[in-house]
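Repro:
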Amino acid sequence: MTPRTTTSVDEETPRIGGIERLAHTDLAAEPLFLAARLASTGSAGANGVLAELGLKVRHYSVLALACSGEEPTQRELSQFLVLDPSQIVSIIDELEHRGAVERRTDPRDRRSKILAPTAAGRSLYGQARDLVTRSTEESLTGLSVAERDELFRLLRKAAL
């Protein structure tokens, strides 16, 4: 066997620790992975701050839509949030138990239920929205205001 005369890149270059060394992989060049990673890290940060209110991102999302003035149905919530209907029912049950929302019969279709916030729910949403806004600011500190605006524009265009 002939001795190896070249040095591999791994032997020449000191290894970078942590996830930074994965930033140059094929996966890190895939837009859907990057969007999912941003969503995951953003959700983790938001869950961390929402914990002081006893909420998670899913609760916040349902509460935000309930407070939107659009009177969403449970089916619309499920479709918009891309959650199984049983997950929506569970989240609404928890928010209803806390006195934050109530189910009402949909006047457009009496077989369907709409979700409406209570006064306590509106107050809780205001507190949660402030926390989520701050968490989002922290998650995006590396972007300028113009870059954030462009990111939001592109995300809305791609997601909606």
